[in-house]
Amino acid sequence: MKIKTNKIKKVSKSSFTIYGMVILAYVIMQILVATGSLSSLMEGLLVPLCIYVILAVSLNLTVGILGELSLGHAGFMCVGAFTGAFFSVATVDLIPIPILRFVIAIILGALAAAVFGIILGIPVLRLRGDYLAIVTLAFGEIIKNFVNVIYIGTDKNGFHFSMKDAVSLKLEEGGKVIINGAQGITGTPNDSTFTAGVIMILIILLIILNLVNSRAGRAIMAIRDNRIAAESIGINITKYKLMAFTISASMAGVAGVLYAHNLSTLTALPKNFGYNMSIMILVFVVLGGIGNIGGSIIAAILLTLLPELLRGLNDYRMLIYAIVLIAMMIFNSSPRAIELRERYSLKRMFAKKTKGEDA
Amino acid sequence: MSFISYLINGISLGSLYALIALGYTMVYGIAKMLNFAHGDIIMVGGFSIFIVSTTLGLPPLLGILTAVVICTALGMTIEKIAYKPLRKAASPLAVLITAIGVSYLLQNVALLIFGANTKLFTSVVKVPPVTMGEGQITISGETIATIVVSIIIMICLMLFIKKSKAGQAMLAVSEDKGAAELMGINVNATISLTFAIGSALAAIAGALLCSAYPTLTPYTGAMPGIKAFVAAVFGGIGSIPGAFIGGILLGVIENLSKAYISSQMADAIVFGVLILVLLVKPTGILGKKINEKV
């Protein structure tokens, strides 16, 4: 009994450390902004930082907790971004309160991404490993291509949809084009703020950390560690896999909505919603430690700030990402490296046991 | 008439996919890993030929030979440094993520060395084009060369695996690494050889890819590489004739959808095919069903 209570305490303690870390970072940043000691460049980075943190944490749910590699995370982000921006532009005159509109946009973006998560997840989660990675990669590319050829406009007769060009929407006078093919969505209200971003991070952390420490979370991790064993003790593989995948997708959708409302023009380019973006998020997850939620947050912040602070590093940014991926994987997963690390940390572990008991 | 010319263009593109897919399927079938960097080795091959035959002005054949040597060495080095330490890793994701890292590394090193500007590649193929049907249909020399080369390579690979000792060792390693080792097969050397052959094929694919589409950037190999993987899955991954059939079919599908449906959606359709194949017959056209062991 005693062991059990200790364990729960430990779990909630580590969760509170993560929440505390985020809130502390928020307060420090707000003080820096208020005193004007932050450069405009840094101030412009605050919302993207929140977006990257959300993306990293949500991808970690798929890669770390579920144990499947998704290379289409940017695709879900794209779905969320376009849904949210479409809603905001369409209702900018109808809903005058920005906060209400933004909240609805976030919910819609998350829902849309979740729907895509389910549609993709049902067939794809039957696959494993390499196949899943390739299919999610393909999904990201399909979404990006698709968004670039759709045109949606509105006039007093309602919405018009076309996949050819803006003229074939046949809008009446006074109508406006909302999604203009490759030109994307223009005039999205700038609703994303640092505060909104941090609130979303906290909500997402609350969901993920509670999920991980719940019955469902343990089932998901059991599937990751041994699928056949999990199945044989009666865990519904499809249900839990789909659950984790969909939650992860909807969170990427939230990040997309924040992204869309941080820019006035939203277009789907290889740069923002392509394969490279998915890889970048993966780098955050790998550097932070696969399965380590707090680590993802730190890695996302670190890898976003470093190239901005050290301007000279910017040219080598992608190269550094690549090296981080290879080096971290070999260091963390290679049997020989694990053996080496264990051998050399044994002494330190004994030293820590006496000192680190109360930490 | 236009349908036939679209079809021929499709077969031309498809034979390139087939050639790349052969390399993929070799490595996947034997080392059981998805070598994400295969497409980027193709790019390295392209740049090697570009330097030797365009910058230095040496004969193209020498360029191809240099590319084969460089790519083979590169493939073996990558295997030694990045993949081998992770062969016995607990998580199957480890080696996959590393492969993505290697692919990214090759792209970005090439970007730093050669810059992002598109290089114009001079074709290394010296086969005259064939004209048919009163001059309405032209089959380019590159197309003929690619089809012939990929058929020859396919037959050679099948013979190599069936008849040679090293090929039989590869089959044994792909079946069961532990048992193969007990039978006295050097597993490390066999996997190394697989990567060497796969990378040499990538160099040849690079020569033909850059001849057919004469532009060269650090990202040249990435997209064809991924599509060739789709082709390999389509045909049944691990199967050599499957890779060939899958490649040709995929090229035809891509070109016909470009012509008749939408040029922007062609990629989406190709990937849609992948999802469909994996749903209906996950082992592909010629693949074998593998039962999972507990």
Poorly predicted runs of chain A: 355-359
Question: Which class of secondary structure composition applies to the elements of chain B?
Answer: mainly alpha
Task: Evaluate the radius of gyration of chain B.
Answer: 19 Å
Count of all domains of chain B:
1
Strand content of chain A: 5-15%
Order of helices and strands of chain B: HHHHEEEHHHHEHHH
Topology order of chain A in helix (H) and strand (E) letters: HHHHHEEEEHHHHEHHHHH
Overall 3D form of chain B: globular
- The overall pLDDT average of chain B reads 87
Strand order of the largest sheet of chain B: 1-4
Number of helices of chain A: 14
Strand content of chain B: under 5%
The major beta sheet of chain A can be summarized as:
3 strands, antiparallel
The helix-and-strand class of chain A reads: mainly alpha
* Number of E strands of chain B: 4
Estimate percent helicity of chain B.
Answer: over 70%
The largest pleated sheet of chain B is described as:
2 strands, antiparallel
Range of helix content of chain A: over 70%
The count of helical stretches of chain B stands at 11
Question: What topology, given as strand order, has the largest sheet of chain A?
Answer: 2-1-3
